[in-house]
Write a structure and sequence with these properties.
Largest sheet of chain A: 7 strands, mixed
Number of helices of chain B: 9
Radius of gyration of chain B: 23 Å
Order of helices and strands of chain B: HHEEHEEHEEHEHEHEEHEH
Strand order of the largest sheet of chain A: 19-18-20-21-28-27-26
Radius of gyration of chain A: 46 Å
Shape of chain B: elongated
Oligomer: heterodimer
Number of strands of chain A: 42
CATH topology of the largest domain in chain B: Rossmann fold
CATH class of the largest domain in chain A: Alpha Beta
CATH architecture of the largest domain in chain A: 3-Layer(aba) Sandwich
Number of helices of chain A: 26
Number of strands of chain B: 11
CATH topology of the largest domain in chain A: Rossmann fold
CATH class of the largest domain in chain B: Alpha Beta
Strand order of the largest sheet of chain B: 6-5-4-7-8-11
Number of domains of chain A: 6
Helix content of chain B: 25-40%
Distance between the termini of chain B: 38 Å
Distance between the termini of chain A: 120 Å
Chain lengths: 933, 295
Amino acid sequence: MFMVGAVGFVTPVLLWALVALPLLWLVLRAVPPAPIRRRFPGVALLLGLQDEDNETDRTPWWLLLLRMAAIAAAIIAFAGPILNPRERVAGTGPLLVVLDGGWADARDWGRRIERAVALVDEAGRDGRTVAVVRLTDAPETVVFQAADAWAGRLAALTPQAWLPGDLAGWAEVLPDVGFETFWLSDGLDRAGRSALFDALDAAGDVTVFQSPRPVLALHPAGFADGAVQLAASRLPAADPLEVEVVARGPDPAGIERELARVTLGFGLGEARGEVALSLPPELRNRITRFEIAGQRSAGAVSLTDDSLKRRKVALIGGRADNAEGLQLLSPTHYLRQALEPVADLIDGSLMDVLLANPDVIVLADVPALTQDEQDAVLGWLDGGGLLLRFAGPLLAASDVSRLSEDPLMPVRLREGGRIVGGAMSWGEPKTLAPFTEGSPFFGLPVADEVTVTAQVLAQPDPELAARTIAALEDGTPLVTRKEVGQGQVVLVHVTANAEWSTLPLSGLFVQMLERLAVSTRPATPGAEDLAEQVWVPEVVLDAYGVPSDAGEMSGVEGAALAGAMVAGPGPDLPPGLYAGADRRVALNAVGAETALDAAAWPAGTPIEGLEMAAEQVLKGWFLSAALAALMIDILAALWISGKLSGWRRGMAGLAVVMLALGAAPGAQAQEAAPTEVVDPDEEALALEATTAVVLAYVQTGDGALDQVAEAGLRGLGERLWERTSIEPEAPVGVDIERDELAFFPFLYWPVSTSQPLPSANAYRKLNDYLRTGGMILFDTRDSDVARVGGNTPEAQHLQRIAAGLNIPPLEQVPPDHVLTRTFYLLQDFPGRHGGAPVWVEAAPPDAEQVEGMPFRNLNDGVTPVVIGGNDWASAWAVDEMGVPMFPVGRGFAGERQREMANRFGINLIMHVLTGNYKSDQVHVPALLERLGQ
Amino acid sequence: MTEAAPFATGDLRQRAETLGQSLPPLLAEADLLASTIMLGEHGRRRAGQGDEFWQYRPTHSGDSARMIDWRRSARSDATFVREREWQAAQSVTLWVDPAKSMAFSGAKGRVEKGDRARLLAMALSVLLLRGGERVGLAGAGVPPRPGRGQLLRLLMGLEGAGAADYGTPDATGIASHGGAVFLSDFMGDMTGVEAALARASDRGARGVLLQVLDPAEEDFPFDGRTIFESMGGTVRHETLRAGDLRARYLARLAERKDRLAMLARAVGWHYQCHHTGDAAQPALLWLYRALEGGR
């Protein structure tokens, strides 16, 4: 291939055409530009004039250059330029492609496969046989096959979530024939790698491909100093690097999302970076995994198990910790010491700590609880709580669980307890008996130093034996337990301090607390913890760090799991979460101490990076350049010949600019000026509503109902025109979702069950409306069948609507409410139906009736809502001719009722528009008196 | 280049009247008046020969009894003489080049030369007719007549373009001792101009030559390979480098102007060049002054 620098040409012969360019130069110069025809009366004066120079105006050199460049670009384009053309080296013999196939490959698996496919394709073209092996698989005999056979299988190959184990096995299965090897390595060293390399090298050339991208591994999170300790390793350790570590877990709704994010930095040349992440316990307990953001590999994901979860323990001591008492004598001192590093302690009164929903409540020598407390604790126990009680002098002296078993005590207690081994007793202090099978403490070594000098004694009972989980050597129960609901009550028959026994002083105390799941276990479970259990995988990670349900995978032996915790996961034990009897253990792709070692290849081995300069065909670019140059040439030629004038020149300039911008895509900054768009409909409504008083009704979506509401307000408007100085315009229907409400002093809202509930935005508008002085008349139109507040569908719908509204306390219209006298004196507010109570905002409780005044001195302002069911709109409604649309009552009495309904409407609108003006009349006597003086 | 809308008849008249309003009525020169064969109603705003009543004045000594207006004198004790306004009229003949070359406009939005020439002609007519002069068109069958009604006939006569590329002045119909106005670009053959001038001056007519040119014709802002064509397309000239011709063109144009000025001077006429890029009013003012006799 003909190469010029990094550019190669497919058909370099065409480049000879470039020689013709100087020729073209001459031709272009010789051909004059096309003449322009001009109408010009002055031509009469030109007749006979000869051109001084017989040659035409030369095309300007830059235009010639442009044209030459265009043609040169076209010639080069057709010669097929390729940037960084790949040199193909034909090999011979079989080809072995070795992939590590661990999680460390997952970061650029696509490229590795691409490279492998390219190798296999090339080998296929050369007629070589190929074998592809993935070192994470179990070693099997390498068989060379035709390249075609591999083409499909390569694409389906995926990396594994673990790293290759010992490679020694692979060295043994290599065929005897000579072959060439391409090793797509992840760059990590491991056992047997150099041996395998030697074996491959013996068979033929070995080329190693290694990605320069760093391998990042996140170690399991630990807990220390009140914070989650995160550590990550990288390879190679080079420039300073910062990665984001993301903590994920379910939110309260159970949806998995990012809970926290912390930046972890690697210093210059440091292979390991650490960071502490301080989180509230609530959040921390929800974390299910940590991952390095942006890294798609199992090594960058660390699942968390129970070791990160910290239990919330509420400590409640019976005696107040008086400042004078020694701290060592405090009933909770040893508990606090034991639990503080491993649990989140909550202090406070029992009722307070119950609100925090602790996992464990420890009652140290608390004898009796009140009935409330007892009920609350029982409820909490039913939900799975652990109540741990310690005995003590107070408990021993109390009557708790004496005659009958207290619900919060596992056993009945004998009066007084006993003291052994004291100065006034015969016996020696008692030691512990070995824990029996079935006890949660089974397996713990009984320490001899633990002695008990005093204890409370359980009443012998048929159930006592079953409830005893630890006993003294003489068989008296030391720890008893009872199941309550989902939870349990545990009583330790000695004090939580060293007063009655040395138990709190011993290490056994901590272990026992651990076994009771009061405190949390150490971060890494030991082999003995895991042994003799079957661990069932619950969640497994794939190589990309994506968790998936383990499904029907079979459980593994504890011993195997313990081995994997040390050696790392393998085919049988993929990284994931394994559940045992009472805890879950996370097996991560990267262990706490896993180190990333760089693979060292023998000198002389050709090592290639994956990041090969990609082949880039430049033909399109050159053709585009030629086309653009020709476009510019058109404009330039027009300009030269003076045919660009006026707006054409502007357009041409624009075109050139567009061309330039098109050449640099992304340079366009689009900044749309924010413009206030006023909806013409909205504006019309605003104008209509603000030029005069306009009564409005809420459109319910029920056509007939809206028509009645409109007719009703029209009728009311006519009455107002006739009788008062309020002269409302034609009523308007408003859509509470869309329209602005602020223009309307009054909204009539006929409640219809078919109306959907307002949206959140509409509620916000309605609440604003009510707060800023608007009034809504809710009409359930059902008082003929029910009283308001009853269970008619409309009333229920009103309750649903009103749930989102800020409606103040209501009361039935009191006889002295200003609504009864704003225009007419009324005591009854009938509509088409009558007699149902009407509700308005309640008067403030401190409103008092002054002696001699007819009314109370009531609140200022207008009631924001009036609620009733009298179907006023129907009573007010008139048709186009002004004739009432609906009959009201019967005969003359009915007309009287309609009149009262109209009067109510007038009073209501007056109230809306004048507020408490009439209420101020309580001051009239005082004013008159003052005037009289 | 000839995209300017043609004048509507009413439009041209209206614009002409508007322009004419701003000038005082034209007064013809006194010595010309004396030789005018036919006296016209051209009020001189002073007493003299004429038909129109001018004023009554008390009789002086020396007034013949015949001059006394007895009807007026009978109404009072004094005797009065009735004086008449001195009136004189002049025939002015206009020739506006109707050739196609006048339809040239060098730039968008600039009026055509012909339009400008017709406008000037009409404005002048309005002024003259208002002053009581007789105005007619040369060769177009519109003999000089007074009165505003003549405006319409003039207008009709001015409408329509000729078929020729370049116009030749027509001296027929020029009244003896009258005035003559030639409005043209004078781009055509000069012999026609010379002949017309000779014929007009033979009749004792005096007048003006107003050359109406487009600024483009003055500047010759062309370059490059160009084929120049006359408006009718009968004359064409091709050049490879128009820019080179500019100096020689301008020289020829200057020569043409000189020749026109010389011709005009020889017969006692006035010559002026007007550009369509300039306002029309100075040109009208100049025409008015030139017809008055050129001070």
